[in-house]
Amino acid sequence: MQQVNIHYAKTHLSRLLEAVERGEEVIIARSGKPVARLCPPRKWHNPRRPGGLKGKIRVEKDFDQTPEEVIDAYYESELFPSGEEK
């Protein structure tokens, strides 16, 4: 890892980017204090695939049949200060 000042970084940006492409990290400093880091980008994850969890998740037929007392308890909790409507 090398450290360069801002003037050098502006003048030799192409060289610094070549170093980063080789896997090196470059610290850019102002008055000897690091202010930025040039490094290779993180590797991206594989793109999402619709249906990737098919057969792995089960939803009960009555998933939306929440009892009234559970709903009331939810709205009476500290998530909703008293006075707010459902």
From TrEMBL:
Domain of life: Bacteria
Family according to the record: Belongs to the phD/YefM antitoxin family.
Keyword entries, A-Z: Plasmid
UniProt name for this protein: Antitoxin
Residues forming coiled coils: none
SUPFAM superfamilies to which the protein is assigned, alphabetical: YefM-like
Function: Antitoxin component of a type II toxin-antitoxin (TA) system.
